[in-house]
Specification:
The chain has 20 helices and 32 strands. By secondary structure, it is an alpha/beta fold. The strands form ten sheets. A seven-stranded mixed sheet has the order 5-4-17-16-18-19-20, with helices on both faces. A five-stranded parallel sheet has the order 7-6-8-11-12, with helices on both faces. It has a four-stranded antiparallel sheet with strand order 23-24-26-27. Helix 5 links the parallel strand 6 and strand 7. The relative contact order is 0.10. The structure holds coenzyme A and adenosine monophosphate. The site of adenosine monophosphate has 20 residues, from strand 26 and strand 27. This is Propionyl-CoA synthetase. InterPro entries: ACAS_N, AMP-bd_C, AMP-bd_C_sf, AMP-binding_CS, AMP-dep_synth/lig_dom, ANL_N_sf.
Length: 684
């Protein structure tokens, strides 16, 4: 093997000489102004990558591939850039690079005509239709900062994001197609605008889909007529997407500083208030381009399918930006792994479109396994063109790994099943098996080794490294590599408190785990109050806030319990207000509906159990870790700080009386305040 492409030396160089490593990687990007400085670590806590470089991300994903000519000429102009497949409508639409560029430039022109300028925020609340990709790239073209909100979130979650980002524009659609129902988006946007405190939104653009009733809008007006003349904002103006682009001239790309924000993506913190992760332009382009080639082993002309949603970081990085940066073809899929129409949906697409790398969440594989345990659909398809099956979003549990490797891909021993670990905050993998560099042996239950750029450590509660095999807090030494978050939107204090305060010089991932003797990382779970439902990251704090709003509830605690398909489901313990009497089944139904209405259908409350009290510390903090342990059937020690031990005894008795406590899972950690929480591991 070529020494330069072996994992170890490359990893070492990335840490010892990051300037050399990332300046080489940066050569794959087209810069308007080449960076002369690679990283500015004056403030090590938020490194600025390529600080004097200038570029435009949409040029790097589109224009440069078109300018290089057709495939025959060495470019990508006539190659498929985006294949948009809807299992819900049965339609497939292919955009070549040239066609996608034309759509993006025209929509960017339409936004500019509506008064959107560089630095403005634009909320994108769309289902999985091509317009979502077009809208994101159009924002990148004019330097507007997009903030995509997952279509499954309910009005209060959308409103919280609108209030924080203060967008001038919202882009939505008449609706999204779910297997059980049609979700109309405009009423959700209207409800969110009613809830939001900000009056920043001047325009709402709606993409009308033929599956939904047509909405009549007045023709879009020139920008001066649309914009409010004073601070007293009028209600947002609603504009039809197709009418807006009808007369728009294509917009030229705007040259941006590498450190200018490309997007804000909100993710769950330990409280109900989402965190606005900010991504820059330059570091993001360099890191994603590098990861496509070196982690996923996907390059020009090859097909990558990240079966996620553009509302999540996986969708941002590996449906939209990553594949297009390297001139690959990406697939956008509206549908589910099962039931639309069957458990063969993924494998038919892989065969038909020659997918080289499929990226999905373990929960999707579990759903497929339940529907088709023998993987008969996969066996009927020709999957031989696949390089690998990548999983992330949650830990790839050994049982699912084994089924995927031995049953699903049993006929293809050369196609590895790769677990890799990352977060919204990092934007690209922290740990994985770097197939493009060197394919390492795969270990069940492990997300393999640290990816170049990430200095990983596992620390105990005192900040000391723990030996191999011992669980602790997984942290990343600063500075974070390019592409990782540069901060939280307009909230420096929260950025520091959430990630940097616990272990000086390190970023706290919020996950706990251990390294084995070979340097493979095993991620075991969150050490804070975040749970992962079907690969969706949700804070128990936001679910508690929804429940606490019910008239009958005095207080509550939400913990995660194991679910065969979705990994984790939320379970609530509730204490009633004094003197209130309720019918438990009715209360349960009302709380389930409340959580659905406040957060979204993606947060299905598994149960609500009425208890007489919740164990607390003397300072009034709910002892969530103890509650989790009891729920999991463990016998936790009574914490020294407990206010009233009899409350704990009563709760333990109540849980024991429940029919099936054994199904509950353990999660470690404690604390619901919005500061970093860490795992207390004994000092070795
Ligand atoms: N817009 C509106 N509603 C949405 C939605 C969206 N974008 N996505 C999900 N929902 C709704 C669903 O309609 C469903 O509503 P219902 O309770 O009224 O039926 C609810 O949210 C739950 O949806 P989902 O989590 O998709 O569960 P499911 O039972 O329909 O399907 C799986 C189960 C495992 C197939 C599905 O969860 C899945 O594919 N998960 C993979 C997730 C993933 O890829 N995550 C990204 C991580 S990389
Ligand atoms: P998100 O920010 O929504 O991508 O969620 C990130 C979180 O999901 C991580 O902090 C982990 O808790 C979990 N996660 C994602 N991928 C993995 C993985 N491969 N193994 C274990 N946990 C994972």
């Amino acid at each position: 093997m070529d020494h330069e492409h072996e994992y170890r030396p490359v990893y070492q160089t990335s840490l010892v000489d990051p300037d050399e490593f990332w300046s080489t990687a940066a050569q794959s990007i087209d810069w308007d102004v080449e960076p002369t400085q690679i990283v500015d670590t004056t403030d090590k806590r938020s490194a600025r990558w390529f600080p004097d470089g200038r570029l435009n991300t949409s040029v790097n994903v589109l224009d440069r591939h078109v300018a290089a000519g057709t495939v025959a000429e060495g470019g990508r102009a006539d190659q498929a850039a985006l294949i948009s497949i809807s299992a819900m409508t049965g339609e497939t639409t292919v955009y070549t690079y040239e066609e996608l560029l034309a759509e993006v430039a025209r929509f960017a022109g339409a936004m500019r005509d509506l008064g959107v300028t560089t630095g403005d925020r634009v909320v994108i609340y769309l289902p999985m239709i091509a317009e979502a990709v077009i809208a994101m790239l159009a924002c990148a073209r004019i330097g507007a900062v997009h903030s995509v909100v997952f279509g499954g979130f309910a009005p209060p979650e959308l409103a919280a994001r609108i209030d924080d980002a203060e967008p001038v524009l919202i882009i939505t659609a008449s609706g999204g197609l779910e297997p059980t129902r049609r979700v109309e988006y405009p009423p959700i946007v209207m409800a969110a605008l009613d809830l939001a405190a900000t009056n920043s939104v001047r325009t709402v653009i709606v993409k009308q889909r033929p599956q939904f009733p047509t909405i009549e809008f007045p023709a879009p007006q020139p920008a001066t007529d649309v914009l409010p003349s004073s601070e007293q904002t009028i209600a947002a103006r609603w504009v039809d997407f197709d009418a807006a682009i009808a007369n728009a001239e294509p917009a030229e790309p705007v040259s941006l500083a590498a450190t200018d924000p490309l997007y804000i993506l909100y993710t769950s913190g330990t409280t109900g208030k989402p965190k606005g992760v900010v991504r820059d332009n330059g570091g993001h382009a360099v890191a994603l381009d590098w990861s496509m080639r070196n982690v996923y082993d996907v390059g020009p002309g090859q097909v990558m399918w990240a079966a996620s949603d553009v509302g999540w970081v996986v969708g941002h990085s590996y449906i939209v930006y990553g594949p297009l940066l390297v001139g690959a073809t990406t697939i956008l899929y509206e549908g589910k792994p099962v039931g639309t129409p069957d458990a063969g949906a993924f494998w038919r697409i892989v065969e038909e479109h020659g997918v080289r790398v499929l990226f999905t969440a373990p929960t999707a594989l579990r759903a497929i396994r339940r529907a088709d345990p023998e993987a008969s659909f996969a066996k009927r398809a020709d999957l031989s063109g696949m390089r690998a099956l990548f999983c992330a979003g949650e830990r790839l549990d050994p049982a699912t790994f084994q089924w995927a490797s031995e049953v699903l891909l049993g006929d293809y021993p050369d196609i590895p099943v790769i677990d890799h670990w990352w977060q919204t905050e990092t934007g690209w993998p922290i740990c994985g098996n770097p197939l493009g560099l060197q394919q390492l042996p795969v270990k069940s239950g492990s997300s393999s080794v640290p990816i170049p750029g990430y200095r990983l450590r596992v620390l105990d509660a005192n900040g000391n490294p723990v030996p191999a095999g011992v669980e602790g807090n997984i942290v990343i030494g600063l500075p974070l590599p390019p592409g990782a978050l540069t901060g939280l939107w307009r909230d420096r204090d929260r950025f520091v408190a959430s990630y940097l305060a616990a272990f000086p010089g390190h970023y706290l991932s919020g996950d706990s785990g251990y390294f084995d003797e070979d340097g493979y990382l095993f991620v075991l779970g969150r050490s804070d109050d975040v749970i992962n439902i079907a690969g969706h990251r949700i804070s128990t704090g936001s679910i508690e806030a929804a429940i606490a709003g019910h008239d009958a509830i005095a207080e509550c605690a939400v913990v995660g319990v194991a679910d065969d398909i979705k990994g984790t489901l939320p379970l609530a313990y509730v204490v009633l207000k004094q003197g209130v009497e309720v019918e438990p089944d009715q209360l349960r139904a009302e709380l389930i509906e409340r959580v659905r209405g406040q957060i979204g259908a993606i947060a299905p409350l598994s149960d609500a159990i009425i208890v007489t009290g919740l164990p607390k510390t003397r300072s009034g903090k709910i002892l969530r870790k103890t509650i989790r342990q009891l729920t999991a059937g463990e016998h936790p020690e009574t914490p020294a700080t407990i206010e009233d031990p009899s409350v704990l005894t009563a709760l333990a008795d109540r849980i024991l009386a429940l029919s099936n406590p054994g199904r509950f899972e353990t999660e470690s950690g404690a604390g619901s305040d919005d500061v970093a929480t860490t795992l207390g591991t004994p000092t070795p």
